[in-house]
Amino acid sequence: MNKAVTSTLVAVLTITAAAGCSGKPHRTVRTTPVAAESSPAPEPLTPDVAAKAFHSFVNNDDVARASGDERLSLWWTSEGQSQLTAAAFRRAVAAGDPVPRYRYESPVFYVPRLLLTGPQWFVVSARRTTTDGKDPHTVYMGFLRSKAVQRWRLSLLAVLDDKQKQPKIAVDSEGYAKALATFDNALLIPPRLVPSIQATLAEEGPQNVAAQVMRAGKYTTGYYTTDQKAMKNKKQKKAGVRSSAVYAATSFPIFPLATADGGGLVLYALSRDTVITKSKSKPGRLPVPDDAVPFLNSGPVKNEIDVSQTMQYVAVVPAKPKKDDGTVKAQIIGADGGTVKAAVPAK
Questions:
Q1: Could you give the CA distance from residue 85 to residue 81 in angstroms, rounded to a whole number?
Q2: What positions does the domain DUF8094 occupy (predicted)?
Q3: Residue 36 forms part of a structural domain
Q4: Are 266 and 227 in contact (CB under 8 A)?
Q5: Closest by alpha carbon to 57, among 124, 135, 6?
Q6: Rounded CA gap, 50 and 28, in Å?
Q7: Residue 42 falls within a domain, yes or no?
C-alpha cells in the first residue's frame, strides 16, 4: 500500500570559541541550553479515533465546498482524492456552478489494529447523498495518515454500484477489522496486484490470461470494448482522428481488509492516460472531449490533446481456491473518478 503536518524540533546549540595562534588561553562562551520542544504523543488508532476523524472531514469538507474554498478542501484530502477534488473545483468554476456538496449518513467504521510506527489507515462505508437528499449511494472511503501524529485525510473514495451488496467485513469482538498484507498470497490475487490485473484487462481485453482471475465487466473488458470502438470509428478515421489509452497502477496507497468468507475487500486507484491526435493532412481542428474542456486554456487545439484521468475502485477478491476450476474470480463492485488534467503539447 497514492497522494503533512510537520513537527518542529528545537536543537540545543552550544558555541565554543577558541583562541588563535596568539597563545592566549582558550575561552568558552557559555550559553543557556534551550529545551527541545516535545512532539505530541502518538494517538493509537481506535474506532473512536476513526469516528472523530471521519466527522472532522465531513464537517470541514462541507464548509470548504459551501464557501468555494478549494485550499481548505484540499487540506483534508490526499493522493487521488486531492486530484479529483481539485478537478471538481475546476469544473465548477468553468461551468459557473457551485461545487457539489454531500451528506454522509450511517457510517460504518472498519478499523484495523496497526503499529504506531507505520502508516495509519481505516475504511468507512457510508450512505452519501447530495445536500438536498438526492442521488443516494453507498460509498467506501479510505482515510490515511502517514504518521501517527499527522492529520487524517481522505485518500480515496469509491461509489458502490447500484444493486451490489456490501461484502461482510471480518470484525473481532472488540470491533476491529483485520488488515491484509498487500502481498497476501492467500487471496486469489494479492491486493497489490489487483490494479495491474484490472489495467491489463482494460488494455488487452478478455483474451488476456488475466481474465482467468478477474470478472469481465464495465470496469475491465468494458473499457477495452469502448476504447476499441473509438479507435475503429469510421467517422473519426475519415477525419484523421486517432486515440489510444494506457491504464496503469498508481503509487497511491491500497486499502485491503479481510472479509468474513476468507477473501478480501480492496480499495485502490488506477490512472488512465489518453492521447488523441489528428492528421495534419486533414482539414478542421481536433474535437475536444467535453470532460477535458475545463482543464484547457483558451488557445486552439490543433493536432493533439493529452487527457489524464484518476479512477478509484473497490473490489472483492475471493480466497485462493484449493482446486482451480476457473469460476472463482475477483470482481470490481464500485468506482469513482474522472478527468484531472488535459493539455496540448507544446510543439
A1: 6
A2: 45-342
A3: no
A4: no
A5: 124
A6: 53
A7: no
In a domain, 125, yes or no: yes
pLDDT of residue 303: 85
Q: What domain range includes position 327?
A: 47-343
The answer to whether residue 184 sits within a structural domain is yes
Write down the pTM of the prediction: 0.85
Q: What is the mean pLDDT of residues 136-143?
A: 98
Residue 280 identity (one-letter amino acid): K
Mean pLDDT of the 51-58 span? 97
In this prediction, residue 6 carries a pLDDT of 32
- d(CA 288, CA 297) in angstroms, rounded, equals 12
CA torsion sign, 291 to 294 to 295 to 300?
A: positive
Do the beta carbons of residue 228 and residue 243 sit within 8 Å? no
**C-alpha span between 314 and 160 (Å, rounded):** 8
Alpha-carbon distance 72 to 77, whole Å? 9
- State the DSSP code for 346: -
| Number of neighbouring beta carbons within 10 Å of residue 44 | 12
Q: With beta carbons less than 8 A apart as the criterion, state whether 257 and 263 touch.
A: no
For 77, 88, 132, the CA distances from 63, given in Å and listed in that order, are 14, 15, 16
Domain tally, the chain: 1
